[in-house]
Amino acid sequence: MKSLSTRTLRTRLGAGLVAGATCLSLAACTSNDPEQASDSGGGTSEAEAGSNDEAGDEVVIGFSAPAADHGWMAAITNAARAEADKYEDVELRVADGTNDVNLQISQVETFINEGVDAIVLLPFDGAAMTRTALKAMEAGIPVINVDREFNDPNAARATVLGDNYGMGVSAGSYVCEQADGNENAVVAEIAGIDSLPLTQDRSQGFEDALSECGLDVDNRVAADFTVEGGERAASNLLQAAPEIDYLWNHDDDQGVGVMAAIQNAGRDEFVMVGGAGSANAMREIQSGDSVLKATVVYPSTQGADGIKLARLVVQDKALGDLVEVSVPRTIQLYAPVVTEENVDEFLPSAFES
Fold first, then answer.
1. What is the reported pTM?
2. What would the 3-class secondary structure string for 138-206 be?
3. What CATH number belongs to 164-297?
4. Distance of alpha carbon 229 from the chain centroid
5. Sheet strands side by side (includes 90-94)
6. Which of 25-29, 80-84, 177-181 has the lowest mean pLDDT?
7. Contact 189, 222 (CB under 8 A)
């Protein structure tokens, strides 16, 4: 695929910045410790009269997400629980996490039959869950779609998304900044699962951003978002590439394995950039003693934002910082770069790999 023009790239970047600004009123500082997160303030117990956080009619929300088989996904559900705990007018019913599409369909149908007020759904497979989400919407139950989109926009009242293309752009822009005009720099990439659109978007954003400073990806391998897969892919890459200046790894969970492979190989000549924004990656950055110098955030607050949006939709409220009187159809979160300079700002809301 050809790289985008400078004008197109800047347009996409601008759109991402606007989307990031839009969701500032949503984003809650969340933690993998629900008790800690619930003590962070806000919610109905401290709300001013007339504010969006003031207690209203009870809202029963059904929540379903894939199995918490790695840190980011576990943080999604934990953050959703913590956000619901802040509101005395929210009853959250959480289905067991599952990677079985048929079971997730059954879970959502149970919520429909129970007559919940809203459903927050991070689908294991967006396309496969579309028909069931449409069924909920047709029953008058608003669906908040999180992270993985349905293939019919009518299947959700609102959608909360990370920015996979923007992650790639942020990572590539950071590499360009570090390379500082050196067009001979050797750049490597460890992707996630290549068949997934999210991986393709991340790689395309990375490629497009690198092209702005005359760089391209010299060595690329794909992993599978697991520690074992990351170590295996990184080992293969390091054997194939005797010289690397910059390495971007798409996912900090698989990055645990990537870091193990780097240490086993005794390689330290390059700058590494992570992806997703895990707490252990941020601590590596904070130490200053690692090849890992930055990570690009893919917010694990999306489930929490979904809970907050569901409550606002059911109570017929809008976002407090917008003039618009209804909740927007789509909110896309920003993908900032975390470095040693700003890591203290992001570490409290990071997830554990």
1. 0.82
2. HCCCCEEEECCCCCCHHHCCEEEECCHHHHHHHHHHHHHHHHCCCCCCCEEEEECCCCCHHHHHHHHHH
3. 3.40.50.2300
4. 20
5. 90-94, 59-64, 118-121, 143-146, 158-161, 330-332
6. 25-29
7. no
Contact 98, 104 (CB under 8 A): yes
Do residues 283 and 257 make contact, with C-beta atoms less than 8 angstroms apart?
Answer: no
| 230-249: average pLDDT | 98
Max CA pair span of the chain: 63
Backbone angles phi, psi at 118, to 5 degrees: -160, 160
Question: CA 76 to CA 91: how far, in whole Å?
Answer: 18
| Fold (CATH) for 32-159+300-332 | Rossmann fold (3.40.50)
Residue type, 320: G
Give the integer Cα–Cα distance in Å for 68 and 311. 24
What is the pLDDT averaged over residues 24-52?
49
Give the residue from 139, 83, 82, 151 showing the smallest Cα distance to 110: 139
| Cβ atoms of 203 and 230 closer than 8 Å | no
Domain range list for the chain = 32-159+300-332, 164-297
- Quick one: how far is CA 141 from the chain centroid? 25
pLDDT of residue 320: 87
**Rounded Cα gap, residues 50 and 102, in angstroms:** 42
The dihedral through the CA atoms of 156, 162, 166, 168 has a sign that is: negative
Instruction: Give the single-character DSSP code of 266.
Output: T
- Is the per-residue pLDDT at 311 higher than 90? yes
Backbone φ and ψ for 303, nearest 5 degrees, come out as -65, -40
Q: What is the mean pLDDT of the chain?
A: 89
Region 302-329: what's the mean pLDDT?
94
Quick: pLDDT tens for 145-156.
999 999 999 999
Residue pLDDT, tens place only, 160-191: 999 999 999 999 999 999 999 999 999 999 99
DSSP state of 347: G
The answer, yes or no, to whether residue 220 has pLDDT greater than 50, is yes
